Amino acid sequence: IWIGVIARNHPALLLYLLHLNDYLYLYVAIFLQQYPSLPNLSGDVFLLAEVLSDL
Questions:
Q1: Which of helix, strand or coil describes residue 38?
Q2: What was the pLDDT predicted at 37?
Q3: Which of 3, 12, 20, 37 is the least buried, fewest Cβ under 10 Å from its Cβ?
Q4: Predicted pLDDT of residue 1
Q5: Closest-CA residue to 52 (of 2, 12, 7)
Q6: Which residues contact 6 (CB under 8 A, 6 or more apart)?
Q7: Are 2 and 45 in contact (CB under 8 A)?
Q8: Is 27 left (phi over 0), alpha (psi -120 to 50) or beta?
Q9: Residues 6-39: tens digit of each pLDDT
């Protein structure tokens, strides 16, 4: 859930955290491959956070 909060308030910070955490970056890459039709990533990061919490 914290991913969604950070993404909505500090998108640049989210990108920085992605660089720090290779596994998180991998999950995001997999998520984007599964859902390439997302119109706005920042608006759907909360959904992404829910997906990551299930891994």
A1: coil
A2: 56
A3: 37
A4: 47
A5: 2
A6: 13, 14, 17
A7: no
A8: alpha
A9: 666 666 666 666 666 666 666 766 666 665 555 5
For the record, the structure tokens of 39 come out as: 């119109």
- Neighbouring residues of 38: CB distance < 8 A, sequence distance ≥ 6: 32, 44
Three-class SS of residue 39? coil
14 in Cβ contact with 3 (< 8 Å):
yes
Structure tokens at 15: 């990108």
Take residue 19 and report the two structure tokens written for it: 């660089």
CB 7 within 8 A of CB 54: no
